[in-house]
């Protein structure tokens, strides 16, 4: 299973559409918040299955703040990240994901890509496809789960 991950589109679908094109064939697209409505709009322009969560700028949107998925025998924690203060560190996110029995934690919020692989947990932030920060380029994430093995990467637009 190949999963595309985007975050922090902030109302600009151009970068998200470009990311979708660059991802090639994916089985699922995950939007990690800060513009939940962008995920809804992408559903209208794509035939790929899209899951979305709300971010700190999505108050008033109807959707989940956190999700736990079971895909290909892998448990995945989805959160925007502001709830776990990811701008100051990843400890709270790390331990919450482990508490939930997850092997992967996906978050956004910082607009800075992260791809940390530890034996007990993969932590990935795709960065932002429209408003990169911290000297990073506009980017998205990819995860492939095959035969119990998890591969991840960050790709620049």
Which segments are poorly predicted (pLDDT under 50) over 5 or more consecutive residues?
none
Strand sequence of the main sheet, in spatial order? 3-2-1-9-10
* CATH topological fold name: Purple Acid Phosphatase, chain A, domain 2
Q: Hey, roughly how much beta strand do the residues contain? A: 25-35%
Helix-residue proportion: 10-25%
Largest sheet: 5 strands, mixed
What is the tally of helical segments? 3
* CATH architecture group name: 4-Layer Sandwich
Number of strands: 10
Q: CATH homologous superfamily, by name?
A: Metallo-dependent phosphatases
Distance between the termini: 22 Å
Number of structural domains: 1
EC number: 3.1.4.-
Family: Belongs to the metallophosphoesterase superfamily. YfcE family.
Keywords: Metal-binding
Domain Calcineurin-like phosphoesterase: 1-147
What does this structure look like?
One of its GO terms (molecular function) is hydrolase activity. The chain is an alpha/beta fold and 157 residues long. It has a single domain (2-156), classed as 4-Layer Sandwich (Purple Acid Phosphatase, chain A, domain 2). The protein has three helices and ten strands. It has helices at residues 13-23, 36-45, 91-99; strands spanning 2-6, 28-31, 50-52, 66-71, 74-79, 104-106, 114-117, 122-125, 139-146, 149-156. The strands form two sheets. It has a five-stranded mixed β-sheet, covered by helices on one side.
